Amino acid sequence: MAEKPPGQDPAHPAPASLPKPEGNPALRMMGLPRFKFKLPSRNWLIFWAITGSFTSTLLYDRHHKKRAQRKWCNFVSHLAEEPVPPAVMPRKITIFLAAPPGDSLRPARDYFHEYIKPILVAGGMDWEVIEGRKEGDVRAGLAEKIRKLRKRSGEKPAAESAEEPEEKENSDDLRYEVRKRSGVTEWDGVQGDLVLGRHTWKEYIRGLHEGWLGPLVPPRPAEALETETQPLPTSTSDTRPVDSPPKTPSTSEAASDSPPQTEPPTPDPPPPKPAKATPKPPYITPEDYPTCPTAPSLPTSLNPSLPLHLPHVLGFLNTPTRIYRFLTRRHLADSTGRSVAALVLASHSRPYIQSAEFASAIDPDFVPSDTNNAPEGAVTQTGEAWEQEAILKEEEREWSKTAWAPNKEDEKTKERPWLERMVIDSRIGQKMSQFELESGAAEEAVKVDKEKRMQDPSLVDRIRRWTGFEKGEKKGWDMGLEGWDDE
Amino acid sequence: MDGLNASEQREFQGRMEKKQMKEFMTMYSNLVQRCFDDCVNDFTTKSLHAKEEGCVMKCVDKYLKGSERLGQRFQEQNAAMMQSGQLPGR
Amino acid sequence: MSFLFGGGRPQLSSAEKIAAAETEVEMISDMFNRLSQSCTKKCIPPEYREPDLNKGESVCLDRCVSKFFEVNLKVSEKMQGEAAQRGGAGGGMSGFGM
């Protein structure tokens, strides 16, 4: 082994000075240097542990998120393969998006693109989006849409229609006309509404009521003058975005003379706002619902809806919650996917119900911070409540504080549908229904997904199958062993 | 064609018919080329297989239906565009 | 298809009028041909499993047309801007875009 250093006395070997044979002898014979394995320093350990665990959690989550989404896409993809005659439009659903309280429209849009759109596309759906940047936009948009629908189905506005300025046809109407002439038919079947978030849901309910119970033309300015003692220009609601800027001076006058007016008005038709993009003022208010006649063209059942949870928290102190959600998006993708699949398949929907348990679910001592608006107790104080009122109630806890702030002095009459209690008229409430997946659909989805992945496996699928994590098709040797076992 | 009188109209009609014929021929050859490219990839035999033939039939059907649909949408869009006054190229 | 005949045009001979109308029709049909070529190429996969359009393809075609028009509009706006910047008159560019 170790050679003696030359020039040493053989009788007195110096064992201490000899290098001790260490390490793998084979490596040593090959002339490789001695590897020394030791742990990195404490700080490096901490760094790698944190970075590594975060990264791996993230990768794991994203992988499973993708799988969950693919699962639900596969579950509905057979719909996109159905033949459709060339003169029939595909099924079109309506998406309601509104900027979450205290934030911009972006999170809602991102959520839609990330979690909802892929499944709609996989199911071969067409959709239109009603977006709301401000409180009330969605309500106005939906009400307008319903009124248009009512006019198309032949309803004539009431007597005051003479005052209504000539409505300008937009490209949408024109397209509708061209389609009608060339014999293109709409999809016959359920259409469906998708509502994102509790705040949008509240506006959606209002919009439904306003559209179906309200008048076809905006309330007369004379009435508005009586209640508001403020000038309400006739044409405001029809051509608002165009003509609002020149109107600014007149409305600022109105604002300046509003202080002398004594009682702060209940949220009856709020006057037109001077700001450039305020929603149309509502034609009717929740207090008017019981006295309003139903529209003659009100169908026996309204479009089924799908209220979806929009997770959205703001604030530095909520960072842990946000990190947790960031790392567990797979669950969100799965639950959203399931709901959207129910809407896409549209095989089943059930009406909303009215029962006492929802009344208790709605916080009994919930008081809107803006005490001016007090439509609560107007209709539903019977101990029973509509299911619609309790839907997504838990989201309200996460709304940022700014959402609850009372109206500022200069915009006292701004509508606050998010804060006020929902009012549901039974004529509308009974006709609403909710999309639901049939029981067993989840298992079915897993099965379908597995079949699809069998046909077209991804790299990860191949690895899983190869390493035996997932049972693929029987391999030759499996068969052989089974046969051998039987004998 | 508001700017044309009767004789001009007639003349115009005649030209349009010729043009339509030409359009039709172009479409036909496009269709042949497309379906040939998509369906026929095997040149070990001289005549079409049953499979290739089926593919061609479906291709033609699909293409015609697609054109119909496109035509409808095109009309709608065109009408909308003219109405809104935002004409292309103006 | 009367949009080429804007108000206040000088009187044209009938041959010119017909030629103008013809150009217009030609532009539109050319646009349709291009549109139909690219949209079928992009939306209809080259496996022909059934003779009917399916839902996915139909939706794709619908959206394709509307996007095509939008692109058309955007490009023509942009080019008009350029032309206006360059010469002001832009008379030479009037027929372009369709």
UniProtKB/TrEMBL annotation, chain A:
Top-rank taxon: Eukaryota
Main location group: mitochondrion
Compositionally skewed regions (Polar residues) per UniProt: 228-239
Pfam families linked: Tim54 (PF11711)
Biased composition (Acidic residues): 161-170
Keywords noted in UniProt: Membrane, Mitochondrion, Mitochondrion inner membrane, Protein transport, Translocation, Transmembrane, Transmembrane helix, Transport
Disordered: region residues: 1-23, 149-175, 228-298
Basic and acidic residues: bias regions: 149-158
Classification via InterPro entries: Mt_import_IM_translocase_Tim54
Lipid bilayer topology: Single-pass membrane protein
Compositional bias annotation for Pro residues: 261-284
Cellular compartments annotated: Mitochondrion inner membrane
Recorded family membership: Belongs to the TIM54 family.
Name of the protein in question: Mitochondrial import inner membrane translocase subunit TIM54
Lineage: Eukaryota, Fungi, Dikarya, Ascomycota, Pezizomycotina
From TrEMBL, chain B:
Keywords: Chaperone, Disulfide bond, Membrane, Metal-binding, Mitochondrion, Mitochondrion inner membrane, Protein transport, Translocation, Transport, Zinc
Predominant cellular place of this UniProt entry's protein: mitochondrion
Segments passing through the bilayer: none
Pfam families linked to this entry: zf-Tim10_DDP
Annotated membrane topology: Peripheral membrane protein
Domain Tim10-like as annotated: residue spans: 15-76
Subcellular localization: Mitochondrion inner membrane
Similarity field: Belongs to the small Tim family.
Domain notes: The twin CX3C motif contains 4 conserved Cys residues that form 2 disulfide bonds in the mitochondrial intermembrane space.
Cited function: Mitochondrial intermembrane chaperone that participates in the import and insertion of some multi-pass transmembrane proteins into the mitochondrial inner membrane. Also required for the transfer of beta-barrel precursors from the TOM complex to the sorting and assembly machinery (SAM complex) of the outer membrane. Acts as a chaperone-like protein that protects the hydrophobic precursors from aggregation and guide them through the mitochondrial intermembrane space.
Name of this chain's protein: Mitochondrial import inner membrane translocase subunit
Organism: Stereocaulon virgatum
TrEMBL record, chain C:
Compartments (UniProt record): Mitochondrion inner membrane
Membrane-spanning residues: none
Domain of life, per lineage: Eukaryota
Main subcellular location of this protein, as a coarse class: mitochondrion
Pfam families: zf-Tim10_DDP
InterPro entries noted in UniProt: Tim10-like, Tim10-like_dom_sf
Topology of this chain in the membrane: Peripheral membrane protein
Keywords: Chaperone, Disulfide bond, Membrane, Metal-binding, Mitochondrion, Mitochondrion inner membrane, Protein transport, Translocation, Transport, Zinc
Domain Tim10-like: 18-80
The protein's role, per its UniProt record: Mitochondrial intermembrane chaperone that participates in the import and insertion of some multi-pass transmembrane proteins into the mitochondrial inner membrane. Also required for the transfer of beta-barrel precursors from the TOM complex to the sorting and assembly machinery (SAM complex) of the outer membrane. Acts as a chaperone-like protein that protects the hydrophobic precursors from aggregation and guide them through the mitochondrial intermembrane space.
Domain characteristics, as noted in the entry: The twin CX3C motif contains 4 conserved Cys residues that form 2 disulfide bonds in the mitochondrial intermembrane space.
Subunit structure: Heterohexamer.
Family of the protein in this entry: Belongs to the small Tim family.
Protein name listed in UniProt: Mitochondrial import inner membrane translocase subunit
Organism: Stereocaulon virgatum
